[in-house]
Write a structure and sequence with these properties.
alpha/beta; D-Maltodextrin-Binding Protein, domain 2; 2 domains; globular; disordered N terminus
């Protein structure tokens, strides 16, 4: 054997031996994962994040830390996630505001393209409620009532999602509403109970007790089927408005650029978690239905939501928030 061949074989032996001593690439995840909720503790997104956290810890074998980052209509927390490292260790759990804010604010703190949808967790229909003194029992009767009183119907709004649900109804029905903003669902629904406002487009849990006691009348839920929390209330198609389907939802996102393998693993873990037999009943108690969409389906849904609310805001000619 020549000296050249000897040196070559020796070098190969050294390299092969070296591979065995190099540290293996770390398996994901190998450290805690943060779920950022862009609202105060105690709200719906926060409750769901803390409900799913222990289940994700079991599935991913790493601690799940829920971190509340409220502010600017939810945009502070979204901005933090959009600018985080795309390594799978920072995740956003948000509601429709993440798709509405880009059309509602003059200065948007995040680029929607910097968010990668992972999984839709739940869907939650809205319900149209009126003060019992308002003589309507269906959406069609509400439309006729509003047309007879142009601009005189006061509708309580508990944030962008409830107002935009109402704006979408108004545009479809070609009626005029005056939206009265309130800081939260509780004062908004109380205003309808007292008669200070006439109606409200609300998530189901926020008004279920008032409807059950007769202090509010529910005339339709806005989903594609009836709500388990209000089984006696027809959904939009049953109530004569098949084109009016609008729901709240919660979903998760990671920074754009996160690897498809990590996104797929998170999607699978989240989808399993919301369907667990000790989780789905607790979601149902919140009026929510668990959803297990693929990454591709949720991505398409998110893009459609961005486009839909941009269209509603433009056609309603809503002034932009600063």
């Amino acid at each position: 054997m020549t000296a050249t061949k000897t040196i070559g074989l020796s070098l190969i032996s050294v390299l092969l031996a070296g591979f065995g001593s190099w540290p293996a690439r770390a398996e994901y995840p190998d450290k805690p994962i943060r779920i950022i909720v862009p609202y105060q503790a105690g709200g719906g997104c926060d409750i769901v994040a803390r409900l799913l956290g222990p289940k994700l810890t079991e599935a991913l074998k790493q601690p799940i830390i829920v971190e509340n980052k409220p502010g600017a209509g939810g945009m502070i927390g979204v901005e933090a996630v959009s600018k985080a490292s795309p390594d799978g260790y920072t995740m956003l759990l948000d509601a429709p505001g993440v798709a509405m804010n880009p059309s509602l604010y003059r200065k948007v703190l995040y680029d929607p393209a910097r968010l990668q949808p992972v999984s839709q967790l739940i869907s939650l229909p809205f319900v149209i409620v009126v003060n019992p003194k308002v003589p309507v029992n269906s959406p069609k009767e509400l439309i006729e009532y509003a047309k007879g009183r142009p601009g005189q119907m006061n509708v309580a709004a508990a944030g962008p999602s409830t107002q935009l649900a109402g704006e979408m109804f108004r545009l479809l029905a070609n009626v005029q509403f005056t939206f009265i903003p309130y800081k939260g669902s509780s004062p908004a629904s109380s205003s309808v109970v007292s008669g200070d406002t006439d109606a409200m487009f609300s998530d189901v849990p926020s008004v279920a007790q008032h409807v059950g006691s007769g202090r509010l009348r529910a005339i339709a839920v806005t989903g594609a089927k009836r709500s388990p929390m209000m089984p006696g209330v027809p959904f939009a198609a049953e109530a004569g408005m098949p084109e009016y389907v609008v729901e709240s939802w919660y979903g998760t996102f990671v920074p754009a650029g996160t690897s498809p393998e990590i996104i797929s693993r998170l999607n699978a873990a989240l989808n399993r978690a919301v369907m667990l037999p000790d989780v789905s009943p607790r979601l149902a108690a919140l009026g929510a239905e668990p959803v297990a969409k693929s990454v591709e389906d949720f991505s398409r849904f998110y893009m459609n939501e961005l486009a839909r609310w941009k269209d509603v805001v433009a056609r309603a000619r809503l002034p932009l928030n600063e």
